[in-house]
Amino acid sequence: MAAAKGTCLNHLSRESPDVKRLAKFYIEMFGFEQVESPKFDFEVIWLKLGSSFYLHLIERDPNSKLPEGPWSTASAVADPRHLPRGHHLCLYVPNFDSVVRNLKEKGIEVNERTRPDGKARQAFFFDPDGNGLEVTSQSPEL
């Protein structure tokens, strides 16, 4: 079966008990812009970064039987050294040192390292809802 031609990433969604708090974090830390979103019977905030990346923040269903998270920021796994390697969103930041310094100044624990091939610096941390994030110094064009 051939891949669908023209396929591209449309958006990433995060469920949150407080979408306004989470939106503020992404707007202040990374420069996301809030854009108009459709009206649902639950709260949503749509954010845009650059020309084509969207983040949809969706109010957590209070009747959900699924665990919150993937992790709670209050749990032991909140230490970014224990962030499972396959559970994060990565953002390239051209001002890597400044972003990492800003995260630390806001009291966010950061696990910094250099990628094994030496071509990029990485910093792993959690957003206010415990979602794993990475910022990298490597441009996506490489």
From TrEMBL:
Superkingdom of the organism of origin: Eukaryota
Keywords, sorted A to Z: Lyase
UniProt KW Hydrolase keyword: no
Protein name: Lactoylglutathione lyase
Record-linked InterPro entries: Glyas_Bleomycin-R_OHBP_Dase, VOC_core
Record keyword Kinase present: no
GO MF entry, a single one: lyase activity
Gene source species: Sesamum indicum (Oriental sesame)
Residue ranges annotated for the VOC domain, each copy included: 8-138
